[in-house]
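Researcher: Sequence recovery benchmark, item below. Answer with residues only.
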C-alpha cells in the first residue's frame, strides 16, 4: 500500500475487478425477488440473497424491540437522528428474522459475535451459517452461505450524487480504476464509481480485514458479481468460487415490523 497526502491508495492487485472489466450499471442484471418457501435448505456451494424493504413510514423503533439483541438495542438508542434510528432498527430486526429461519430458533437466542477485525459472525452451534449484511437508503440485503470456507461479503449502495468523487477514488481505488474514472466526463463518473465502490466493500466484508488494511500474503482473491437489487441501487457479492447469479435463491422478506412476533 502506498500513501498520498490524502491517505492510503490501494495498489492494483491481481484478480481484483477493474472498471475496464465491468459493465454500465444500466446493463447489470436485475434481481427477481421471490416469496420465501415454507422450508429453507441452504446447501454447500449455494448462495441465498434476501431483500429487506425498509418501511417509508416513520415508526417507533421500539416496535422492533422483541426482534433485536441487546447490542442492537443499545446501538438503536444511541442514534440521535429519528430516521436513521428507525431504519437501523428495522434492518437489524429483518436480519435477525432471516437468520432465525435457518437456525430454527427465536431471534432472542441468536448470538452474533465479531471476529478480531470486526466481521460479524454466528457462534457455537450456529457457526455453520455464514452471512453478510448491508443497508443503504430504504434497502437492506443479507447474503448467506453454509460452510466455514464459504465466507462472503455483500454491499449495496443507493446511487446518488457524491461530492469530491475523484478524491474518494484516489484514496480507495487502484490506479487503473482511478485513471478510467478520471478520463470519463464528469456526468458519466457516478455509476462506475458506485460499481467500483460496491466491489471494494464486498471484498472487504468477505475477509473482514477493514477498508485500509492490505490482504494477507498469498490470500486467494474472491470473485465478485454485480447486480441491481432495486431501481436506483447497485450491489455486489464477493465469494470464492461464487456460483452464477442465476443459481442464487433470491428472497423477499415481507414487512414484519408493524407486529413483530
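Model:
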Amino acid at each position: 500500500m502506498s500513501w498520498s497526502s490524502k491517505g492510503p491508495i490501494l495498489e492494483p492487485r491481481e484478480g481484483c475487478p477493474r472498471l475496464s472489466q465491468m459493465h454500465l450499471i444500466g446493463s447489470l442484471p436485475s434481481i427477481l425477488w421471490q416469496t420465501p418457501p415454507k422450508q429453507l435448505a441452504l446447501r454447500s456451494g449455494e448462495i441465498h440473497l434476501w431483500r429487506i424493504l425498509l418501511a417509508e413510514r416513520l415508526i417507533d423503533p421500539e416496535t422492533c424491540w422483541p426482534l433485536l439483541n441487546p447490542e442492537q438495542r443499545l446501538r438503536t438508542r444511541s442514534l440521535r437522528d429519528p430516521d436513521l434510528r428507525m431504519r437501523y432498527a428495522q434492518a437489524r430486526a429483518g436480519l435477525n428474522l432471516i437468520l432465525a429461519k435457518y437456525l430454527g430458533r427465536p431471534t432472542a437466542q441468536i448470538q452474533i459475535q465479531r471476529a478480531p477485525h470486526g466481521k460479524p459472525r454466528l457462534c457455537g452451534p450456529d457457526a455453520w451459517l455464514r452471512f453478510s449484511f448491508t443497508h443503504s437508503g430504504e434497502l437492506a440485503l443479507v447474503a448467506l452461505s453454509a460452510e466455514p470456507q464459504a465466507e462472503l461479503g455483500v454491499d449495496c449502495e443507493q446511487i446518488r450524487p457524491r461530492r469530491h468523487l475523484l478524491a474518494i477514488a484516489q484514496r480507495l481505488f487502484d490506479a487503473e480504476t482511478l485513471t478510467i474514472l478520471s478520463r470519463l466526463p464528469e456526468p458519466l463518473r457516478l455509476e462506475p464509481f458506485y460499481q467500483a465502490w460496491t466491489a471494494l466493500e464486498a471484498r472487504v466484508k468477505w475477509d473482514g480485514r477493514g477498508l485500509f488494511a492490505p490482504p494477507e500474503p498469498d490470500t486467494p482473491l474472491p470473485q465478485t458479481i454485480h447486480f441491481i437489487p432495486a431501481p436506483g441501487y447497485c450491489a455486489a457479492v464477493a465469494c470464492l468460487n461464487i456460483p452464477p447469479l442465476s443459481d442464487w435463491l433470491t428472497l423477499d422478506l415481507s414487512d414484519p415490523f408493524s407486529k413483530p412476533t
